[in-house]
Amino acid sequence: MIMRNSKQQYKIVIDPQYGYRHLEPLPTSEELERFYVEKYFSDIAKSNTRALGIKRLMKEDDEKQFELNWLSATRWRDIFDILNQNLSDGQKRSLLDVGCGLGHFGQYMAQAGYRVSGIEPSRYAQEVARSFGINIYSAIEDCLQAGQYFDAITLLYVLEHIPDPVDMLKKVQKLMKKDSLLVIMVPNDFSTLQVSACNKLGLAPWWIAIPDHINYFNFESIVKLVEQLGFQVIEIYGDFPMEMFLLFGDVYVGNPELGSLCHKKRVSFELALAPEVRRDIYRTFAKAGIGRSCLLFAKYS
Question: Which of 28, 150, 155, 222 is 20 to 30 A away from residue 80, measured at CA?
């Protein structure tokens, strides 16, 4: 598959060892550093179609509170509960949130009793996250130099953004204790539902976002990656398959108003279910490769 942005043409290729897709050629580390340090959040603030979940959290209005209430009751609660079920009892637990962004998830975990640090390159996001009392590093190398170890390390929507996810996970391993837990969330891309929506509606693959997304995972490839690096997967979940709205005829691609309505329907569905019922559904979805995202929990020992 050939893709193009305003400056360069890219191919989407499959990594021969780990099975995930990625851009070729990869952007340089210098290009990515400039983008994430200086431009990423400002570009989101100006866009009506890009990273809308982050944009909702950048506001100070009812929409932000709606988003926080939903995340606290669903995704963040799931992570908190599953970590607590699998970590050994002991003193106050430590968590490192890699790519912590504005720090709202870190704030949630700190309020739940965790000692939280974060890694975030954006100067703007660093300031917001520090306002929640989170200890922030600019890069994982800074964290490695500090010589800390963590009970849990989260990478929520991170691996799709970085040029070398294998190297990142190898560095993460050096920050983990015996039986520490790893939590990864990535978009589930090139899924059957996405391809079906493209075929039905004649759409280009809207999930390819250059330069934001360099890598493209699905359930099979993210499991293969972590297992080949020595992790043991203990839980994996899908989530709501947003592409179903497209197949229903609600073409939200390029239509932020309709996209917002579809998002609110998804939120209403998830909040109406008891947490364990929702988790049971999303475990089943993961087995079928269904869901807009993959949420994976793994041990390293």
Answer: 222
Measure the CA–CA gap between 172 and 63, rounded to whole angstroms.
34
Closest to 48 in 3D by CA, of 187, 289, 229, 254: 254
CATH 3.40.800.20 at 2-300, yes or no: no
Q: At CB < 8 A and 24+ separation, what contacts does 53-57 make?
A: 54/101, 54/102, 57/101, 57/102, 57/104
Q: How many residues does the chain have?
A: 301
pLDDT tens figures, 131-175: 999 999 999 999 999 999 999 999 999 999 999 999 999 999 999
- 8 Å CB contact between 117 and 92: no
Q: List the domain boundaries for the chain.
A: 2-300
Tell me if 19 sits within 8 A of 224, measured CB to CB: yes
* First-to-last C-alpha distance (Å) of the chain: 38
Instruction: Calculate the alpha carbon distances from 81 to 20, 27, 71, 109, 245 in Å.
Output: 29, 37, 14, 11, 29
CA separation for the pair 26, 8 (Å, rounded): 11
Report CA 249 to chain centroid distance, whole Å.
27
Which of 242, 236, 259, 140 has its CA nearest to residue 193?
Answer: 242
The pTM of the full predicted model, rounded to 2 decimals, is 0.95
